[in-house]
Design goal:
Elements lengths: L6 E8 L2 H9 L1 H7 L4 E5 L6 E6 L4 E11 L3 E6 L3 H4 L5 E11 L2 E9 L6 H21 L11
Antiparallel strand pairs: 1-7, 2-3, 3-4, 4-5, 5-6, 6-7
Helix pairs in contact: 1-2
């Protein structure tokens, strides 16, 4: 059993698996529920690079797609910026999407290998981001907040 902290979050969302997959993989969706903090760019296939850029387009960090099985499972590394990463393995995000009722999906996020000292901010940050994602998919409008300051 790993002693590194992990974060697990599950929520039911009134949407389709395909629309939720698009929200997790298309930069235009990210900009809405992340509050234009980061841009994401990838081909979203296993082994592909995943580039995170700041809102101004400057490089933030780069991850790698570990698994992509649309629209069911998406897993990728979530590295800190190179100056903060050190020799630690990058953090790992795994998204699982499954139908849970008519027009409803269950989204489960596991954020593993959290950098020591960041577990509380990870939990607060994901709660904000995932609430905004849920709101966007169900109502057409994200929540207004700054996910970086959470």
């Amino acid at each position: 059993m790993s002693s590194e902290p992990a974060f697990l979050y599950a929520t039911h969302i009134k949407t389709t698996p395909e629309r939720l997959w698009a929200a997790l993989t298309e930069d235009e969706f990210w900009q809405q529920y992340w509050g234009n903090v980061w841009h994401v760019e990838s081909t979203w296939v296993s082994g592909a690079a995943l580039r995170f850029s700041n809102a101004d387009g400057s490089f933030f960090s780069e991850g790698r797609i570990v698994e992509a099985d649309p629209p069911r499972t998406l897993s990728y590394t979530w590295p800190n910026p190179p100056a903060e990463q050190g020799d630690r393995p990058p953090e790992l995000l795994t998204w699982r999407i499954e139908r849970s009722g008519p027009g409803v999906v269950l989204l489960t996020l596991e954020h593993a290998r959290i950098t020591p000292g960041y577990a509380d901010s990870v939990a607060r940050g994901w709660a904000s981001v995932l609430s905004s994602l849920k709101s966007l998919l169900e109502t057409g409008a994200p929540l207004e907040f700054d996910p970086v300051s959470r």
